[in-house]
Design goal:
By secondary structure, the chain is an alpha/beta fold. The protein has one domain: Aldolase class I (TIM Barrel), CATH 3.20.20.70. 39% of the residues lie in helices and 14% in strands. The chain has 13 helices and twelve strands. The longest helix has 33 residues. 50% of the residues are buried. Bound molecules: ligand FNR.
């Protein structure tokens, strides 16, 4: 396997069709899903030369945490559906690679087991209509050593994913459960994730009242929302359309990024996800002002192919590709990447 698409192809042959579709699919007509990867074809790089790129330094610092490369693992559900190693396997790979795992609220292993790998992790939260339960969960993940809360804000209702409807994939198979939704923690039955259409900006005050963890908002696409997050003292945002699984026809993260970065300036770090499959995709995002990127499906494909080792391979492919792309663009460190390196074609 020499590229992330190679890993994806290998994974397709290893998963039950309905499980593959759950991971691969998007909302409605999947236009945004397709656009996420296609968008990168419209960006071209304008490299600089003779810049002495002897040793590239790929490290970045996000929320005070030093990462060996500007690539985090996006929160994705149900890792044990991909491989028995599950989220613990993904965590081992993230730790070995020196990056952060954003653990999904829909993880199939308990946060304490994930933390025991030594990984630095953030926890992705859908604020639940039952605030008392949400508070217990936030305290639980904080006690486990969580480094930030990633509050997903693009899901007031659940996207409609036709593949899952056709396949009748509505629930986890027997033996798998959302282990962090057990109530009481660890022993009770798992709760179902609830959606809260009434959620609004006031939830940030409530969250600040129950936790001192940094708060990251995931699923911002509009610059006015990014500004609002900055004004509210949010610690970081992730520009994202949820991998095309929520609003079909939503703008892609990479296309939304420049206006968001322009609107917030250096008031808070801006991360981006969606469709990142190559080192040059990472480089493009960084050049357009992202502090780091996150990858979702490629990690699931690596996990499906070879458990923790497969995830490690995906991360190392991206690292190697980014390193080479930076050298070829004349950048010896992430801070040397700027928008002058990027041009858009075909629009
Ligand atoms: C997701 N994503 C997601 N996001 C989130 O906030 N909570 C979650 O539980 C999940 N679950 C989830 C499951 C699966 C199977 C996928 C593919 C995605 C969205 C995810 O964090 C991220 O935004 C996208 O996956 C990024 O796009 P790529 O890298 O998959 O193209």
């Amino acid at each position: 396997m020499f590229s992330l698409p190679d890993v994806a192809a290998a994974a397709a042959g290893r998963l039950a069709a309905a499980h593959y579709d759950f991971f691969a699919g998007g909302a409605d007509d999947e236009r945004t899903l397709r656009a996420n990867t296609d968008a990168f074809d419209r960006y071209r790089l304008r490299p600089r030369v003779l810049r002495g790129v002897g040793e590239r330094d790929l490290t970045v610092t996000v929320l005070g945490q030093s990462l060996s490369m500007p690539v985090l693992i996006a929160p994705t559900a149900f890792h044990r559906l991909a491989h028995p190693d599950g989220e613990v396997g993904t965590a081992r790979a993230a730790a070995a690679a020196g990056t952060v795992l954003v653990l999904s609220m829909a993880a199939t292993q308990p946060v304490e087991q994930v933390a025991a790998t030594g990984v630095r992790f953030w926890f992705q939260l859908y604020v639940q209509p039952d605030r008392a339960f949400t508070e217990r969960l936030v305290r639980r993940v904080a006690a486990a050593g969580c480094g930030a809360l990633v509050v997903t804000v693009d899901s007031p209702v659940f996207g409609r994913r036709r593949r899952d409807l056709r396949n009748g994939f509505l629930d986890l198979p027997a033996g798998l459960a959302c282990e962090n939704l057990r109530d009481p923690a660890g022993s009770g039955p798992p709760r179902a994730i609830g959606w809260e259409p009434g959620l609004n900006w006031d939830v940030l005050d409530w969250l600040r009242g129950i936790t001192s963890l940094p708060i990251v908002l995931k699923g911002i696409l509009h610059p006015a929302d990014a500004v609002r997050a900055a004004e509210r003292g949010v610690d970081a945002i992730i520009v994202s359309n949820h991998g095309g699984r929520q609003l079909d026809a939503a703008v892609t993260g990479i296309d939304a990024l420049p206006a968001v970065v322009d609107a917030v300036g250096d008031r808070l770090p801006v991360l981006v996800d969606g469709g990142i499959r190559r080192g040059t995709d990472v480089l493009t995002a960084l050049a357009l002002g992202a502090s780091a990127v996150a990858v979702g499906r490629p990690v699931l494909w690596g996990l499906a192919v070879a458990g923790a080792d497969g995830v490690r391979q995906v991360l190392e492919l991206l690292r190697d590709e980014l390193d080479r792309a930076m050298a070829l663009c004349g950048a010896d460190r992430v801070a040397a990447l700027g928008p002058d390196l990027v041009e858009t074609v075909g629009r």
